[in-house]
Amino acid sequence: MSACRMASVERLSSSLRIGRADCGLRTRRTGAPVGRQPPAAGWRITAGPKLTAPRDVSRHPGGCRTGMNTSLLRAGVFLQPFSLSALQPFSACAPSETWQSNGSDLGAIVTARKRDHGMRCTDRTMNTPLNVGVVGLGRLGSLYAKHFATRLPGARLHSVTDVRADVTQAIAASTGAKPFATYHDLVKDPQLDAVVVMTPTKLHAEVVIAAAEAKKAIFCEKPLSLDLKEAEAMKASVARNAVFFQLGFMRRFDNAYAAAKKKIENGLIGTPIVFKSASRDQYAPPIEYLKPVNSGGLFIDMGIHDFDLARWYMGEVKSVNSCGAAVADPEIAKVGDVDNAFTTLHFASGKIGCISLSRTGIYGYAINTEIVGTKGTLQIGYDRETAVLVMTPGSISHDTVPGFLERFDPAYLTQLEDFVGNLRLGRPAPITCDDGIAAQKIALAATRSLHSGKSETV
């Protein structure tokens, strides 16, 4: 170990032993200074290799950054459970909790490993990119594959597969990834560290369970599943195999939604009492996709984002009441779904909310949320894509957001950066199977209410 790294270890070790109140380290979970007795029988200071963190690897879904102190990260200083072994390098496979700076000059992230965190990560070193395989290469799956191939320094696109062999070969040729005929073959590759599941929702369960049985870390796009029993089976398989699992709700990683979460946590608008959210697609997807057997219906396929945000901002939902109809396209009614709907929410806390969903926005893609608090209101979202106003006699106009990729592409990338960072640093997933199941229960209750015409308990 170099003299510089040893000095950093000794300085941090000294601060921890004497319990310096000004060292600036507090646990994320309890807020207690790190300098006080850690919650384990024994701890040691170890030095690890130089960290090559991917861009924004320290970002939280709440929008804040952990404030890594680069000198300590270069020194590779971590707080770990005690063992009789000598100082040893940090391994990315160690499950962990993160202990972070409260804003002082020390500003280091110190990782407290726990023996029984119930999470398996990769055995690769911090300097080796994670090998990621993407299953499902539709519009979003292809985008993710390209992100892993070109925009995520902490990971590399190792392999791809899709039911369309020509698409698999085309993406493999353009990215250098290894093509597989089936996901069964892909997840069995011993060089693979993580599987990204981007298939149609009805196939999520079988792919996730296969990946879990193969002991791979997993990222799965929303919704978790169309069927609640399948979702529970996915959760059980993840737990049984002790693998890392992260669910994709990209709005939590959008700068505006993340900033709003932080403002709520800081008490800027007081206590949130009313939640309002509106999601509008410009045009409806193809009829074949809209069949509930494929999409789950409007509330599961589209409303799942809004239901997740409702929980994230306001807490658990107790009951819902929905109404809706295929008022713009009768063909949607023929497959058993609606194109416009409203759902009122009754939260367990007594607060209320309302969600509007539409497949027929016509003018553009519009995602907007409002949270009313006891001291103020937050409005999230925008309708103008380009910061240009056209002002002519009798008219002021601007363009609109054309689609979900234009609106949320940065959030999709940040979400993947978070996934990679969580694996490489041993952080727990911010969005789990439990979050997916909770949002799914709300969506299913909203669907039941649509057909029953009465309030339904979640």
Question: What does this 3D model show about the protein?
Answer:
With 458 residues, the chain is an alpha/beta fold. It has 3 domains: 3-113, no CATH class; 130-243, NAD(P)-binding Rossmann-like Domain (Rossmann fold, 3-Layer(aba) Sandwich); 266-410 and 438-457, Dihydrodipicolinate Reductase, domain 2 (2-Layer Sandwich), CATH 3.30.360.10. The chain has helices spanning 3-18, 70-75, 139-150, 165-175, 183-187, 204-213, 228-240, 255-265, 287-290, 292-295, 298-301, 304-314, 330-334, 404-425, 433-452; strands at residues 25-27, 43-47, 77-81, 96-101, 110-113, 130-135, 155-161, 178-179, 194-197, 217-221, 245-248, 272-280, 317-325, 340-347, 352-358, 366-373, 377-380, 390-392, 395-397, 456-457. The strands form 5 sheets. The protein has a 7-stranded mixed sheet with strand order 17-16-12-15-14-13-20. A hairpin with an 8-residue loop joins strand 4 and strand 5 (110-113). Helix 3 packs across helix 14 (404-425), helix 6 (204-213) packs parallel to helix 7 and helix 12 crosses helix 15.
Give the helix/strand layout.
Elements: H1 3-18, E1 25-27, E2 43-47, H2 70-75, E3 77-81, E4 96-101, E5 110-113, E6 130-135, H3 139-150, E7 155-161, H4 165-175, E8 178-179, H5 183-187, E9 194-197, H6 204-213, E10 217-221, H7 228-240, E11 245-248, H8 255-265, E12 272-280, H9 287-290, H10 292-295, H11 298-301, H12 304-314, E13 317-325, H13 330-334, E14 340-347, E15 352-358, E16 366-373, E17 377-380, E18 390-392, E19 395-397, H14 404-425, H15 433-452, E20 456-457
Helix pairs in contact: 3-14, 6-7, 7-15, 12-15
